[in-house]
Each structure stands twice: as C-alpha cells, then as structure tokens.
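Dear Dr. H.,

I hope your travels went smoothly. While you were away I took the liberty of generating a structure for the chain from your last submission, since the lab meeting agenda had it listed for discussion. I wanted you to have the full record in hand beforehand rather than looking at slides cold. The sequence, exactly as received, is reproduced here:
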Amino acid sequence: MKTGGLRVSASYGSKHRSVQEETAPLNEVPMCSARFRSFDSVILFISDVHFGRGATATERAKEAALINCLEAHADRVEHLYLVGDVFDGFIEYRHLVPKGFVRFQALLARWTDRGTPVTYLFGNHDPWHRNYFQEELGVRLVPGTLTTTHAGVHLHLAHGDEQASTHSLYRWLRPLLRHPATMLLYRSLLPADLGLGLAQRISRLLHDEATDPSVIDALRDHARQVLRRGRADVVVMGHSHEAVLHSWTDGVYVNTGNWYEHRTFARLDQDGMRLQQWNGTRALDIEAAEV
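The corresponding predicted structure, in token form, is as follows:
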C-alpha cells in the first residue's frame, strides 16, 4: 500500500479492521467505550525523529511539524512514548547538553508539569543521556525495553536496535557502547564539541538511506515471538524506518516508521491501535487493528 510516497506493509488476522486514509478530523474520531482515563484519551508512540541530521531549515520544519502534531492531541494524551532515536547523535555531559530543539523540549516540560507522563526509550543514535531530560523536563528515561499496561492492554516497547541491525558488528558493539565505563572514558577524554561532533559524524556515516528488508523481517519475527509467548497484547518498535502494522490472533505489532521523513506515528485509543501519518494539519489513518 502506498500513502503519499510512504510504503506501508500490513498483514491481517481476524482482528484487522480496514480504515480510509482520509479520516475525519481528530476531534471527530469515534470512540467505543470508557476504558481509558477519559472518553477519548489516547496513547501516542513516536520514534526516529533524528533531530540534528539535516540542514537547519529542514530541522526547524521537522520540529515544528512534530510540535503541531503533539499539540493537536494535547487535550487527550494520556501518555507519550518516544521510542528511540529522537536525536541523531546525542551525548550529554555532566554540565552540558547539545543545543537546539528547545521548542520541542519546552513542550515536553509543559506536558509533564501538567501531569502528562512522557517516557523516552533510548535508540542506537541517542543512548548517552545522563539526567537532564529526567531532572529538567520530567521525562522518564528507559535504556532498554519496557513492558507496561494501559487500560488493560499489555504493551511491549523497544526501539529495535537490539533485535535487528543493518551492521553485523553492532550486536557486539552495543553493550560496549552503552557500558558506563565506556561513556565515562569518552566524556573524559574528548571535550564536548569534539566528542559530540565525532558522535554525530559517525551517526551519519552509519545511517542507511534505504530500508533493509532483513531488519524489517527480524523486527516482525521478534514481535511475533513476544506475542506468541503471551507477554503482550501489543508490540511497539521503531528502528526500521518502515511503518508497519500486523494483526494476528496473538496480538498486534506496530512499527512507528520514521518521523524525520514520513511523519508517521502510532496511537492507542478506544478503537485499538492506529498507524497514522501527520499531513501538516491533522492525522490521517493508514491502518488500524483492534486490540
């Protein structure tokens, strides 16, 4: 299926329900019951924003689009999950954080101040956080996978780099790169400008423009295994940059795709799990499945 240049994969079990791409405005989406905190509460999942990858104008437009999308849901968001690779090379030092994207960070602070939880799972491009997001913005930081429950729906969340990677050595490098001793040594030996600049350069060199079918398949297979073992009703991942929704009798797997290029994300509401795309003014449904 193609949606405005976006290739979307989906396979359907008995729970799948087709929806039109041109949906009603967000405030007209029907809800079925009252399991959530309020009649039309939603849970949002966004990944692979890769702030800092492009030119200044491109990054500013990307940030503005994300803020507009989040603000369009602001009255109904029960929880926001950032499912990794929000930044494209992020190293936080003891007294310094990378500059930029303060408008997005300000939105996170406003949301947590008013009691809307925000959870940030680390990706392969942004694992070197310390405590700035947690202490200054009120964001919960999760280095690995996360299992949680909303309205009786059991969720398994992971960025996906541990489960699949386009680089064969990454499986061995990942634990080393995330080890506290490695982080301490890197920060101690390299000043902030040099250390961050080097990390961002390597991040860009390792970025693959084309999606890798083997990564897409590996993430789908991992999700299927989690669901078959009864560990979750829904598995949410990113990393592949391919927006995907699969519904089986065991449960639902959704990959949020990528925000930096396609503006795709996922949301859980009373109707189930939705894979959506922001068109600049509102969210359009790509696929949906009951949970």
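Two observations you may find useful: The longest helix spans residues 56-72. The chain has eight helices and 16 strands.

With kind regards,
E. W.
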